[in-house]
Amino acid sequence: MASGPVPRGVSTANLPVAVTEITCGSTTRFSTGLGELDRVLGGGVVPGSLVLVGGDPGIGKSTLLLQAADRVARSHGTVLYVSGEESVEQVRMRAERLQALHPSLFLAAESGMESVTGFIAGMEPGLVIIDSIQTMYLPDLPSAPGSVGQVRECAARLLHVAKGQNIPVVLVGHVTKEGNLAGPRVLEHMVDTVLYFEGERHHAFRILRAVKNRFGSTNEIGVFEMSDGGLREVANPSEVFLAQRPLGATGSVVVASMEGTRPVLLEVQALVAGNAYNNPRRLVTGLDWNRALLMVAVLDKRIGLNLGGCDVYLNVAGGVRAEEPALDLGICLAIASSLKNRPVDQFTTVIGEVGLTGEVRAVSQLEARVKEAAKLGFKRCVVPRNNSKQPFQQGGMTVFPVGSLEDALEVSFGG
Ligand code: TYD
Ligand code: MG
Q: What mean pLDDT value characterizes the chain?
């Protein structure tokens, strides 16, 4: 404890304490019952934490949280799910579909903030879910529900509840089209953890990403697949992302991307087509647009592939986003393969960053990537020479180091 007299008027509740004197009640996290969600949270839910789950409308936020609510109700204790958007009957119908019917899961269709905090104080649930923060409102504020003022103030009340009663609260936040005005962005600084749920609406895959986490790393992702019975966890993303890969097709290259601590194999696809009108198009989905353009320029200038008169389309299969520089070499090979109309060997994985002189640069965590490729039965792996000087074997796979883009093309197409 701090020593010496305390001046009048100073609160004695939060006096400064020597750092060595502070004992931490070990943060006992509890599981949400969904391993992929736990991973992104940093190993489960921390009591008293305020978590924001953002995402486009219709992406599956309510589904994810209702599934988690049910699992927590089964294993941990009472859960209060407050919906400001749907009636309790509607939520119950979804719960039936998800087989999430448990007597410890309580639903309330309420958007008045005072009632909600009242429910929480009365029930003392083990977990609270607010779906969504944009529908909550405080009558004493002049602005309308969903406005920045309301969203902030309601979140502040819930922060107070979370910290004061040591109850974890999850807020759902819709990303709004108009530059995220009253969307999750205005809350990011207030909450402990910010997760974004993303995916292409017409693909089944959904990726949960942490962009801020006071209780864990922000590198982790969780992978889910939307099915008729709700979200299914995808424990081995590589297998799923490569499942529909066309074997022996031109313009298709397998790359190894790190998603957090997990290596994930993805298929990069390129289509190079002649453009007769002299206004070549570059269309990129799932990859970083600027990097993709750099790769086109490097291939054009350093390798002499004449791409100036061609349309170039690039895509990551499965509706996934991957923006790592380690994908550069795979992007280059996919483009070259489509242009030359020659497939890259289907049992080859390609890893490496490409610089502007056409050099192949080292990547982080090569070992994990290479192991993942070997695990999935690939026979060859192209890696940066700066990571490994000599070719080597890894679980039945031969690893070929290359120093330049030219080398890589040579290895992949045989001259
Ligand atoms: P929802 O969780 O309501 O999205 P959000 O809360 O982010 O707005 O999910 C919406 C979509 O998910 C909806 O279009 C239907 C689909 N869905 C399924 O495909 N399977 C299911 O089991 C459920 C519950 C929803
Ligand atoms: Mg919803």
A: 91
